[in-house]
Amino acid sequence: MHTTSTPPDPRWVTARHEFANAFGDLARGKRNWQIIAFWSLGLLTVSVVAYVRLAGSARVVPYVVEVDRLGQIAAAGEAEVMRTPEPRLVASQLAGFVRAVRTVLPASPPQVQAEVMRRAYAFVDQGSSAAVMLNTYFADPSHDPRVLGQTTTRQVEVTSTLPVPSSPTWKIRWTETEIPLIAGMLGRTTAWEGYVTVRLRAPTTADAVQDNPLGVFITSINWTQITVNGGLSQ
Questions:
Q1: Is residue 35 one of the residues assigned to a domain?
Q2: I need a labelling partner for 78 at 20 to 30 A (CA). Which of 6, 21, 34, 91 fits?
Q3: H or E element: which one contains 45?
């Protein structure tokens, strides 16, 4: 006994294909839009985070402004990023520091010697061992240039300023000539040697730019007297 199946009505088959095509396109379109939405959300999140970090960070762009004798702006432009200065320029700054910190002026208004010391401290990294050493040294009246200036003067001549290889340390040698201001006292010439450790940092204030334009800051100091009048010191 044979069983024969009745073929489906072509109208139902056609309707089913049309239904599947219509809703299949909708499902695929919905999936595509979901993917686009997720990508957009991710991109928006990254942009918001970047803007928040950018807004939270300080951005200072230095400019150099040239003015004429009347105070009118003659030229202006963005300042270049500070480059590492040449060793000879650093050596010149360190020599100036030694002269300022060791010179004793004759009896003069206190503000004159104070200005010399201010120039010396412009090269010292505040809070470092160099600042502590100088503060302790000058706290002793026997080393205070304002006290010494009442009886003597001291002239400083730097003889050499050399970098220690593969190190931020410099070796400096100089001579000091003390001339008494009181009759009967003898003058003397002494030789000195010192080591200073340097850190280069761009100046951040107007005073620092004027007093220490290269950003040469001393973090440690060690000096010693090596001779007196050409002989070995005791």
A1: yes
A2: 91
A3: helix 10-56
